[in-house]
Amino acid sequence: MKTSALALVFACFAANAFAQEASPTSARSLDIVQVISQTTDDGRCGLVPMHLVYKDSEGLVHTLDYTIVGSGCSSG
User: Fold this and answer.
1) Which among 13, 20, 57, 60 would be 20 to 30 A from 29, CA to CA?
2) Secondary structure of the chain in the HEC alphabet?
3) What is the pTM of this model?
4) Which segments in the chain show pLDDT lower than 70?
């Protein structure tokens, strides 16, 4: 009983730690009314960090950081 209670406490902390970030593959859709700024991959190859600043329908400004595979990789 004591072990299962302890496991439940750790599970709650773990779930809470990950609740603050939403992955790009989550079911949540973004409410983008206006793109304020965004980075480009500049033809780089490999994993490229990207940055998007946008305004939602309520006028709030949000920042989204994500990673893409750059468009500069040649195939073959």
Assistant:
1) 13
2) CHHHHHHHHHHHHHHHHHCCCCCCCCCCCCCCCEEEEECCCCCCCCEEEEEEEEECCCCCEEEEEEEEECCCCCCC
3) 0.57
4) 1-27, 75-76
Buried b (16+ CB within 10 A) or exposed e, 19-42: eeeeeeeeeeeeeeeeeeeeeebe
Judge contact between 41 and 72, C-beta under 8 A: yes
> Which of 52, 33, 45, 32 lies closest to 71 in space, CA to CA?
45
Is 59 within a domain?
yes
Beta partners for 39? none
Size of the chain in residues: 76
CATH number at residue 74: 2.30.140.50
